[in-house]
Amino acid sequence: MIEDFPFLNTVQTSSTENLPTFKMYDWNFTENKFKRDKNGDLILLSENDALKIWIEKMVRTERDSYLSYSTRYGTEFKKLIGKVISVGERRAELRRYLIEALLSNPYIKSVDEINFVEDKTNLEINITLTTIYGRMEV
User: Fold this and answer.
1) Is 129 exposed, middle or buried (0-12, 13-18, 19+ CB in 10 A)?
2) What is the model's pTM?
3) Three state DSSP letters for 38-77
4) By C-alpha distance, which of 104, 102, 106 is closest to 129?
5) b vs e for 20-50, b when ≥16 Cβ sit within 10 Å of the residue's Cβ?
6) pLDDT, tens digit, for every residue of 27-66?
7) Cross-strand partners of 110
8) DSSP code, position 17
9) How far apart are CA 115 and CA 93, in angstroms?
10) For residue range 84-117, what is the model confidence (pLDDT) as tens digits?
């Protein structure tokens, strides 16, 4: 019976013992390309520095837009565009989408704080979270 319904026997674990060191190549978000060192080699980041790149890319990626990404990767911010809701409701939804997306990464243990800073045209999101490597701000 479990073979027919494997989702009934799923257990999420918070074990981080067997996770390899998180690594990712550095990315220039302004020019939308990899960063390179003076020799032209790609710059490999690890731990929280690599997670900052992953978070920025994940926030900029709309969920379910690319077949190459998991259905858990990305955000659903576009759902809020044109939706008539209060500022408080919009921020609550943004917060929920962010937390859900961030916690899909097993290296992120908790999202501790999310602050929104907005002007007339931009919304800046400051996030404090705890990873398996310690506390960090993005």
Assistant:
1) buried
2) 0.76
3) CCCCECEEEHHHHHHHHHHHHHHCECCCCCCCCCCCCECH
4) 102
5) eebebebbeeeeeeeeeeeeeeeeebebbbb
6) 999 999 999 999 999 999 999 999 999 998 888 877 767 6
7) 130
8) T
9) 13
10) 777 778 788 888 888 888 998 999 999 999 998 8
